[in-house]
Prior knowledge:
The chain is α/β, with parallel strands linked by helices. Helix content is 42%, strand content 18%.
Amino acid sequence: MKFDLQYKDASSNARAGHITTDHGTIETPIFMPVGTVGSVKGIHVKDLKEQVKASIILGNTYHLYLRPGLEILKGAGGLHRFNAWEGPILTDSGGFQVFSLSHRRKLTEEGAEFQSHIDGSLHFFSPEGVVDIQRVIGADIIMAFDECPPGDSDHAYAKSSMELTHRWLKRGIDHFDSSTPHYGYSQTFFPIVQGSGFKDLRRQSAEYIASFERDGNAIGGLAVGEPTEVMYEMIEVVNEILPQDKPRYLMGVGTPANILEGIDRGVDMFDCVMPTRNGRNGMLFTSQGIINIRNEKWKNDFSPIDPEAPSDYDSIYSKAYLRHLFIAGEMLGPQLASIHNLSFYLWLVGEARKQIVKGTFRSWKEKMVKQLALRL
């Protein structure tokens, strides 16, 4: 993997660049649709390419390991061939999912023992094993196995958790460097900065992560219950330390405003389930503000879903028609809303990139953040 930093905004820390992988090139800043179990929920690969205009998607190690399982993925030739996505793929290591199973898992120095949410069966993830799983999945970008502490962790727990993550990271990197890809193309390995909401821990973690000089670095353990202001502060602290010439990935964040504020602070890569999850429930993120498409006010509104029309469907279908689909319980409604939201997120980061190149990002961002918060 190669990262070329092309532009820097003069009035902020926003950047624009290119990530090159064996499966294609990614323009940054970028938002990555989440395909947890091998599919971006409810969306065909053709629509991901042509409507959403995604250049990279995510898979999840925990979920893919449980279903369909490694034997099937290896037999298919990896996730790219299994789900017919030809572009780059990033896989989360499953650390967040194990964290979310607090009542079903046990952490030790060796790794994490957990119960499957599907059938209650016992499984074990180690830093080395998670590398092996991601090798089988065939992701272009592999994430380190980490512990994700709760947002309200005290300093002692956050420090202990960070130190465990660091020890796991060294083991994961050593194993990655001593193993080889399965499918004839290269894979790369991103460490993850932890440290909860504590500046000293975040600095320590960022310095440790940066010392490995990997192709890119991630910021984890945010948007897990801490105040938004703390999240922004931690991003600033970390990005003062992480190298300028490597992409920075903020994991699991977030709202359109969160993404713009992250770009402002020097983040290059984002992912979140919010566009599809909220879309399935009738919440649309648009260039004009937030719409609850189920509301009565849209019943006779025959205007396009979004005047900016980030996807073709935005101009083909009206708000009234989309509302009708939701009220009628027609499955096309959540599908169209999900496509719209994802295409809007990709439009948003694409516009941010244009503004960075023009040198007008900061003023544009401040206007957009206010507009995106409007409830229509």
